[in-house]
Design goal:
The complex is a heterodimer of chains A (639) and B (203). Helix content of chain A is 8%, strand content 45%. Chain A is built from 6 helices and 44 strands. The longest helix of chain A is centred in the N-terminal third of the chain and has 25 residues. Helices cover 55% and strands 15% of the residues of chain B. In chain B, helix 2 packs antiparallel against helix 6 and helix 4 packs antiparallel against helix 5. The longest helix of chain B is centred in the middle third of the chain and has 31 residues. A 5-stranded antiparallel beta sheet of chain B has the order 3-2-1-5-4. Chain B has 203 residues and is of the alpha+beta class. The chains are: A mainly beta (639), B alpha+beta (203). Chains A and B meet through loops of A and helix 3 of B. Bound molecules: copper (II) ion. The site of copper (II) ion has 6 residues of chain A, from loops.
Chain lengths: 639, 203
Amino acid sequence: MLKKSNIIVVTLGIALFIFLPNCKKGAATATLASDAASRVYVAPGEKDEVYAFLSGGFSGQMSVYGIPSARLFKIIPVFSVFPENGYGFDEETKDMLKTTHGYVPWDDSHHVEASMTDGKQDGRWMFLNANNTPRLARIDLKSFETKEILEIPNTAGNHASPFATENTEYLMAATRFSVPVPQSNVSIDSFSKGGFKGTVTMVKVDKNSGRLSIELQVLVPGFNYDLSHCGKKKSHDWCFFSSYNSEQAHKMLEVGASKKDKDFILAFNWVRAKECKDQGKAYNFGGEYVNNFKDENKPAVSTKLSGVKMLNPKDCPGMMYYMPTPKSPHGTDVDSTGEYIVGGGKLASVIPVHSFSKMMEVKDKKEHHSTEIEGIPVLKYESTLAGEVQKPCLGPLHTEFDGQGYAYTSCFVSSEVVKWKLGTWEVVQHLPAYYSVGHLSIVGGSSTEPYGKYLIAMNKITKDRYLPVGMELPQSAQLYDISSGKAELLSDFPTVGEPHYSQMIPAKLIMDKTAKLFPLEENKHPYATKSENDAKIVKLGNTTHIYMTAIRSHFKPDIIEARTGETLYFHVTNLEQDYDIPHGFAIGGAPNMTNLLIMPGETRTFKWVAPKPGIYPFYCTDFCSALHQEMQQYIRVSP
Amino acid sequence: MKALLFQTLSKKNRLLILGVGLFLVLVYFIPIWAISISAPQYPEGLGMQIWINQITGATPYDLKNINLLNHYIGMKEIISESIPELLFMPYVLAYLIIGAFITELIPKVGMAILGIINLIIVGLVGLFDFWRWEYNYGHNLNPDAPIIIEGMAYQPPLLGCKVMLNITACSYPSYGGMILALSLVLLVYIVWDEKRRKKSNVV
Ligand SMILES: [Cu+2]
């Protein structure tokens, strides 16, 4: 028997043999703009043109960069605890990380999605998925804070998520790992016998508040659903999901799941799904999940929910179709006109492009069906095909569009981005990527009106690009200018975690709407202290609530007496009403709690169980003023 | 001279006096004076406005932030309640406005001259009072202040700009102050116009 590494070497060997001449030529056409430095230079005091929101991959966070300078502005904690500001630790935010599995302080977040109105970015929210413990988050772009997290039940590996419909009516979330639904202890062999299932979840987004709720789940065959993108304009009603392992292999997937020549892109008519639900065709199904909501300046509220509406494809004809797509498709991307659905087959030698109009024409004609899988008709490959980009590169994954009729596809294996023309399917440019590019992103690239101009490629490996920093090197993103006929490399920059996917938004859509402070008079926190005169200590048995204020450069009350074993809640309100003047709060040696950063007008709570007798200092951690070092005091703990 | 004082105002000038009266009503609704503060850490600036009956920040938070800065040098907190002048200033303004309306009933040049005298007195006393408050705020500092610099006072300028430590403070009349000044100019014009009219009548 051949060893696994040998199989890879042989496969890649053959692949390289086939494609090498082509790619060599490609690399030769790559250019580094000669005036690149001046085009990414943002002079002191000047502002960047674009916000880039990058998912943090295995860091579970989201980071915010300025483009073109590539300066890192902020890390927004979403699915992982963040000691810098106490996210996930304090009484206000710890419930944000509650799940049905308990408190989960980490996740693996892959895809950033921007809210849209009429297919255009509206700068209101960002959405992020948690793959490991299936969840969806909504990040508010006024405060740049995570406002809501919704768990997705009856699914495992929330990877094809959160992809928004054209008007952010719904976010789609589909199973990466098929599992028994509902969960049960079955033999893993039963995967191959159809015992494992996937689900596609429609998460409703409230138009005004942004609040998330589960509208419906659809039970789909047990494949691995990888990515999704929703339609636009004429394809508004549809979302497209790539799938792999239609072989339903359950061991050695790298071979078992790569056998078939074609897997599928699942076309899903969500408008039809909703219609079937409204007609009563969905049934009540189990599934426990939680919804965590953090209202402005209030503690997060975690609500346990149970049960969803479940729909079987066979009960809702016209809702789902499979489009065969070579080979183990990863990306599925819809162009700005809504007509072309581009597949990215990890192992494919072409980039297949499906035509939405063709699909609509043939979808219900029997002669265009090859078979049916669990009530989902399988269309013939040629019936929906608009064209194929021939021999573009190795390992095409993701495609974005510039709105000028060109598409850009990332190629993982050959480490490049290829630019090709929609309609003629001709490759017009090869851009080398350093190295192993996954997703790429164009400003407004997944909306109906891309702003073109900038493209970033998000790379997994950096090797010789930067100063070595031990065994783990930073991952990176590369910035290209795509505004002229020929794309040019401008810069590359290291990133936080794995920059898995990104959404870029013109700064003018967001910058003037960002919040500067919480008005004190609107502070409705149950433990708020709005003036120093109201600062007080309230003892309730063995629990003490300290209503504390912080302002430059002191806390009040500033002397605290406690007894060993007593639980103290420091409800600290920052009385400042000045932009960019947070105060910090930390207690020496406090276990299980980190620093708090309290924004102007905000109230946050530090929980502390008084340890053994002694004197414990507490202090402000954010350098707030000339007397910041004096912003400190003591807690005396007596036996 | 006496003849001029008792000369009846022309129709045009009576209308102008009425205009001055109505114009002065606006002063109740807009600030009279503005002090702006800029410092490296305040690129957007901070502002303070003096109204006929109150002191406010240029934004809802500016006054609070000015006081926060001032506490380092031990300056007393600036709040409307601590300035009793603000309690009777609205009546002084009402006196000026009523004066304009009375002039409609007794349309004599002398009334206009009285108006000029009143405005000048109010202006001078107001400016002196303002200077006195600035002096007191700038000099009577808390001896326990965190920052004490020998010989340093923090009196803002009466008019114009002044640098104090890292802060540049500028003090200028605001719209209300300009209305008061313009009213004075209008009254002077009226008297001048009446004087010219008298001369031409004589000739
Ligand atoms: Cu502080």
